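Page 47, continued from p. 46.
Same chain as before, 469 aa.
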Amino acid sequence: MSNKTGIKSNQEVWRRFYKLFTATILVAVHVLLIYLILHYNYNQDFRTRLYLRGHLFVLGIYGVVFVALGRVFGGLLVGDRRNGEVLFSQLFTCLFSNFVFYLIIMMYSFKFPTPVPLLGATGLQIIFSAGWILLSGRMYRKMFKPYQVLLIYDGVAADDFRNKLKTRRDQLQVSDMICASSPIDEIYRKIDEVNTVIIWDVEVSLRNIIFKHCYENSKRIYMAPKISDIILNGSSSIHMFDTPLLLTDGSPLQYEERILKRAMDIVLALILIVLSSPFMILTAIAIKLCDGGPMLYKQVRCTKNNREFEIYKFRSMIVDAEKRGAQLAKEKDDRITPVGKVIRKVRLDELPQLFNVLKGDMSFVGPRPERPEFIAKYVQDMPEFAYRTKVTAGITGYAQLYGKYNTRPYDKLKLDLYYIESYSLWLDLKLIILTAKILFTMESTEGTTETVTAGSSETVTAGEDKSEE
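Result:
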């Protein structure tokens, strides 16, 4: 190992140690505060008082939940994400974990204990988290500089990716870039000068050559996957003859997985319909009083196996909003009613889709259902777009949570296929929990900045599905 590689390895070790240290302190302080109120405020409420083993059992459950939610929301990722994003995620981690703790003490005491001590502890947790995340995040960026990366690109996608990187200058900075069509010796020379390489949209055979050189020289490698890479990501590793094989049968969900997913959809849909029924009634009344038009909006979408169905939404636009053809919503869209602006911001317009889930047209998690005319346009440029219909369409999904309005449709397709090929019940639960966090962010409710019609070529680059009315 060269001296340069050895220095790189030591820096990585210290980066990892620092992240682990900051996360450990966060978890320890939260658990300590929970212990104090458990011992001094809630212990007397229990029919049988808890002592050391009981305390350890409750705190163990709390710690596991806190760490698990911290990983899901990203509340423990100091240094990996912006301080504000980590703090926002930590807030959700704390609130969800403390809710679980309250359920535990409620079961122990067989009553509804006063939440005042827990609310006080939650306040202290949030104050500490804010101070610790801001301090440790600032220290991280002073101690560890952003990775200086070599961008190896092909075609015109490099500028698009460089714009993406500008949003994370605290993590990655392009120090040099080279086209994949350059002489291979020149590419190797530039690779040897850096520790981190991004291989972006490079033809597969050449990409493999470059990748192997990076791997042989212990470089840190980021690589944009092709569609086939993502599909193989969900394959099974088997041993046959005297060589390992990867097996994929084109059926992302097994029979038992489909049963479990459908059962979870039915149970969650029934619970949420009951809980949200007052909001749905008030929303329906507000829409009717606003302009006297219909309360619901129905639109043809496609789900599994390209089967068409009618999606239900509360109407947020004026009647006959698409009399000039199908259009995506845009910022400051004058077709959106006053009530529509409110219900879109708080996602109340999506609530009727719970009935789509109950009917089996949709699932809670899956690729968003597209309109048939939009699918026809997408498939012309991306034949693989049809792969999305291998599973039931969903209310929320990977592309909705990790993509943005300006995310290229091809990248959104990759996100959807990653979900399809990586499906698990835990992944569904994780994405449902993450959706609760996304509901409180404003970015995903924004419209596209351009007016786009189904018949225009821009439809294939516009993105999201706020095209309802």
